[in-house]
Amino acid sequence: MEIAERTYILAPIGVIHSDLTNREAAPRQGYEGAPDAWVEVFSAVADGLLGVRAGDEIIVITWLDRAQRDTLQVHPGRRPDAPLTGVFAARSPDRPNPIGLHRVTVLEIAGFRLKVGPIEAIDGTPVIDIKPVLSRSNDA
Amino acid sequence: MEIAERTYILAPIGVIHSDLTNREAAPRQGYEGAPDAWVEVFSAVADGLLGVRAGDEIIVITWLDRAQRDTLQVHPGRRPDAPLTGVFAARSPDRPNPIGLHRVTVLEIAGFRLKVGPIEAIDGTPVIDIKPVLSRSNDA
Predict the structure, then answer these.
(1) Closest Cα to residue A99, out of B63, B89, B116, B119?
(2) Which of A103, A99, A94, A82 is nearest to A34 (CA)?
(3) Could you tell me whether strands B73-74 and B85-86 are parallel, antiparallel, or unpaired per DSSP bridges?
(4) pLDDT per position as a tens digit, B54-102
(5) What is the DSSP string of A78-128?
(6) DSSP A32-79
(7) pLDDT digits (tens, 9 = 90+) for A29-42
(8) Are the beta carbons of B51 and A89 separated by less than 8 Å?
(9) HSE of A75 in the Cβ direction (CA atoms, 13 Å)?
């Protein structure tokens, strides 16, 4: 079997609840005026939250399920006049595996829900992982 | 359909070629003495590399295919005496979706291969995405 043919199954560990409901209205990055939102962690994996505290800097990793997976080059920043750029040199959500990285602060914890922000992910976006920021590497 | 039941298919966009061949021997983080390695990007998605240049700071995102996906709590740092911690508050490779984030420098480009480092991922690890570091957010 050629290595490229092996695929893997992602099972979301949670979901974003946000007032942002459509991609066009969402800021491109968290620091561009994005709101706070709630990350709901599913009960089946909620034991993984032990040690997450308000005030923590974390990386929320999402699956941008409304992205185009067959896009390999884009005009970055939604600017048609920007030079064509490969998706691996851009932060476009459109890419073969539409993974979103969101560095945020944990603002509040309520049960299995984390209030975080600022975050540009839209309502209903699946969350696939949460990691602490490594201060040494300034992450990722 | 409950949202938790929806799953997604990840198709690797490349693979790590490294002298590190087993998980036990690998450093836990790139800055802990990890070597340089090559990222081979598969030809089907190589158009996505347009604009990636030597000297760039990038985030290589891997699928840690040798991790345990049913682990929800760990003793971080491979220290049995460390307090039990949820995987979402730890950087253990063992977690429901074993995604690895590696902030590295592009040292050299040869065709569809990028020499990057330092990186603690072991030989044969699937690569699922590559993103530029955002200087504004210091990423991710």
Answers:
(1) B63
(2) A103
(3) antiparallel
(4) 999 999 999 999 999 999 999 988 888 999 999 999 999 999 999 999 9
(5) G-TTSPPEEGGGS--S-SSS-EEEEEEEEEEEETTEEEEES--PPTTPEEE
(6) TT---EEEEEPGGGGGGGTT--TT-EEEEEEE-TTS-TT--EE-GGG-
(7) 777 789 999 999 99
(8) yes
(9) 6
Using the Cβ of B106 and the Cβ atoms of chain A, whether some distance falls under 8 Å is answered with no
Q: CA triplet B62, A8, B131: central angle to 5 degrees?
A: 30
Decide: A97 and B128 in contact? Cβ < 8 Å: yes
Closest by Cα among B56, B65, B61, B64 to B13: B61
Chain A CB contacts of B124 under 8 Å are 3
Provide the pLDDT confidence category of residue A17 given band limits of 50, 70 and 90. Answer: very high
Please identify among residues 11-50 of chain B the ones whose CB lies closer than 8 Å to any CB of chain A. 11-13, 15, 29-31, 41-42, 44-45, 47-50
Q: A72 in contact with B at a CB cutoff of 8 Å?
A: yes
> Is the omega angle on the peptide bond into residue B118 within 30 degrees of 0, that is, cis?
yes
Interface touch B89/A63, C-beta < 8 Å: no
Chain centroid, CA B8 distance in Å = 19
Please state the ipTM of this predicted complex: 0.92
As a whole number of angstroms, the distance between CA A113 and CA A63 comes to: 18
* Tokens 């990840």 -> residue: B10
